[in-house]
Amino acid sequence: MRVPPGVTPGDFADALKQFEAAVGKDWVFTSDEDVDLYRDSYSPFWHEDEEPIPSAAVAPDGVDQVQAVVKIANAHKIPLWTISTGKNLGYGGSAPLLGGSVVLDLKRMDRIIEVNEKNHYALVEPGVSYFDLYRYIQEKGLKVWIDPADPGWGSPIGNAVDRGGGRTPMRDHFDAHCGMEIVLANGDIMRTGMGALPGSKTWQQYRYGFGPYVDGMFSQSNFGVVTKMGFWLFPEPESYLTGTVTVSKHDDLIPMVATLAYLMNSGIVMGTTSVGSPLTFARQDPALAALYAKPGGPSTQELEQYAQGKSLGYWSIELPFYGPAKVVAAQWEHAKEKFSAIAGVKFQEGATRRFPMDPKDLQQFPTSVAVGIPNLSVFGVGGARSEGHVWFSPIIPMTGEAVIEAQQVFADAYREMGMAMGPLFFLGPTSNYPRCFLVLFGFPIEHDVEKNKKNRENFKRLIRVAAEHGWGEYRTHTAFMETVMDTYSFNNHALLRFHETVKDAVDPNGILSPGKCGIWPKHMRKARA
Amino acid sequence: MRSARAALLFLCSLTIATTAFAAPDDSQVERGHKVYDKWCFPCHGTGSGKPGTASLAARGQKPAVLEERTDLTAPAIKRFVRHGVLFMPMFRKTEISDAELDAVCAYLTRNNKPQ
Fold first, then answer.
1. Could you say which of 1.10.260.40, 3.40.462.10, 3.30.70.270, 3.20.20.60 is the CATH number of the domain covering A239-372?
2. Hey, are the CB atoms on A107 and B95 less than 8 Å from each other?
3. Residues in B touching A87 (Cβ below 8 Å)
4. Could you say which residues from 45 to 64 on chain A have a Cβ atom under 8 Å away from some Cβ of chain B?
5. Domains of chain A: which residue ranges?
6. Cβ–Cβ of B49/A376 closer than 8 Å?
7. Which residues of A are catalytic?
8. Hey, are the CB atoms on B92 and A131 less than 8 Å from each other?
9. How many helices (H) and strands (E) does chain B have?
């Protein structure tokens, strides 16, 4: 039997018996066969001793059982690693950061407590997936949209507390939450915002309650176990329209992104869009491939000439609009007026979708997450033989200058690492979050020790390169949490030192998710250089 | 190692070819269909955005939609679900219980012909 670090086999056996008494024998997993199911399927440590494998898993079915498990763990000083649906693939999956931790698996807590159609919110447990919530809403015929993360089997709670993003106007998932229920390390239970008021009628309607607003401290942290969370939903809009804007010259990107930022910050464009280039899709053309094969690659002028010759355009953005048909048409017209200041700009209007959509059309909708329908299509991103991926995902300013600089900096970094392009792919800067761009690079997981070692080195190098240019990761795989947190070092790591002060106060035995986001309990903390 | 996964794929293909046929009962098939719709269809179903189906098609598996296969076996299905393959992750017992997995196997082998 595997045993958590710092715990004697006798103490662990005693704790396991108590876990069984708390949640039932069937829901405490200790055999290697069962516990191995909690390994990260996309682990960058496959077949290496460093792979953090849990010692056991315990799966409560209610908040009272969570309280009992946490109290037992606290008494025995057993590290718990909390997961919700456990499908945070690319960021650690269901595996702990610290090998030997007991996984606190909340998948069985899958109750949809309320979906309110009049005030447009939901209250759910951690084991609810986007698929579950979507099906529930469809079955009941409610006129509200969820905002799914790209993988539909993810948990609205798990994704929000990891500060994931989507595509609709509710795309910043943590920002869209309203009210939390949290079990603390001593087993105490706490509700935030208006939930702290017994009998409150507005837990999912007014975020702040009274006094300090603490919800953010339970995102990307290890200060408590979130057992309920409210989310604001988007009222089903009358229609969805997309319009594509294409410009012809490289430097047009600067006014193009400035206009996009104006439209987004004005509330005219309210969904996720990406900066792309039609040239990306033309790389198979021998003429363009020949330009890229030249020593040093093509010049900007050559690419502009190629794009002009093929009537392709150099950059493009697809703008999403949500709302009444008359309003989205007017928004698109206004956007066109603004972009028309760029010489040679072209516009292409997409189809207007009306809701509710015909189920047959829904089945074939290529980007269904943009209209609140979860799917799993993102898992095809690495190709048919992909064995998984991890994401390098810095945040850069929403300016054309920043996009051009980031493209140059990361291209240079890849070249220095011996790679002509990104290791897997570079998804264009996207607006999953307000006021900034998220850039995503996928690193392949290949079940090859040497390749994974090299990729881990490269990943860490990119984290440092990004930080040197003022760009930080928004989220990362457990393997890189410490490296990323190390870059948030203003004033001798004042922010991390604050986190550690909080950790020591609310979880003095350090049982909750040790190492999450670089926050270690006192007894496991390394001396800082 | 890639070789370990290749061995798993090879083992599964052998299992597909050699395991004996057993007719599943209707209620088990119906239960399995529900579990399949919840857990498997989003990746292995028909329509756009089904990466499991796309991957099987790209690798020459025919038919690529699992529900249309007549050569799958319970041991192979269980291995894929509990160990994963390529970008398909493994599934925990809090997601798909052993009993539910048996039902999925009944559903996906319902059209198998006796050997």
1. 3.40.462.10
2. yes
3. 89
4. 46-47, 57, 59
5. 9-105, 112-235, 239-372, 389-477, 488-524
6. yes
7. 91, 474-475
8. no
9. 6, 0
Report the topology of domain B2-108: Cytochrome Bc1 Complex; Chain D, domain 2 (1.10.760)
Q: Is the pTM of this model over 0.80?
A: yes
Contact present, B104 and B96 (Cβ < 8 Å): yes
**What is the fold of A488-524?**
Vanillyl-alcohol Oxidase; Chain A, domain 4 (1.10.45)
Query: What residues in B contact A386, CB-CB < 8 Å?
Result: 86-87
Whether the per-residue pLDDT at A409 is higher than 70: the answer is: yes
Show me where the domains of chain B are located: 2-108
CATH code assigned to A112-235: 3.30.465.10
For domain A389-477, give the CATH number. 3.40.462.10
Task: Please give the DSSP secondary-structure letter assigned to residue A185.
Answer: T
Distance from CA of A309 to the nearest CA of B (A): 33
Measured between beta carbons, the chain A residues lying within 8 angstroms of B43 are 376, 379
Residue B80 sits at φ, ψ, to 5 deg, of -65, -45
In the numeric block, the tokens 């190629």 are attached to: A306
pLDDT of residue B68: 96
Give yes or no on whether A112-235 and A488-524 have one common fold: no
pLDDT, tens digit (0-9, with 9 covering 90-100), for A233-270: 999 999 999 999 999 999 999 999 999 999 999 999 99
pLDDT digits (tens, 9 = 90+) for B32-89: 999 999 999 999 999 888 999 999 999 999 899 999 999 999 999 999 999 999 999 9
> Distance (Å) from the C-alpha of residue B19 to the closest C-alpha of chain A?
23
String of b and e for A43-81 (b: at least 16 CB within 10 Å)?
bbbbeeeeebbbbbbbbbbebebbbbbbbbbbebbbbbb
CA dihedral in degrees (A514, A515, A520, A525; nearest 10)? 120
The reported pLDDT for the residue numbered A152 is 95
Choose the closest CB to A380 out of B55, B90, B93: B55
B2 and A384 within 8 Å at the Cβ level: the answer is: no
Report the sign of the C-alpha dihedral through residues A25, A26, A27, A33, in that order: positive
3.30.43.10, 3.40.50.300, 3.30.2130.10, 3.30.1330.30: CATH of A9-105:
3.30.43.10
Q: Tens digits of per-residue pLDDT, A168-201?
A: 999 999 999 999 999 999 999 999 999 999 999 9
Q: Measured between alpha carbons, how far is A516 from A524 in angstroms, rounded to an integer?
A: 12
| Cβ-nearest to B1 among A47, A93, A388 | A47
Mean pLDDT for all residues in chain A: 94
Q: How far apart are CA A273 and CA A284, in angstroms?
A: 25
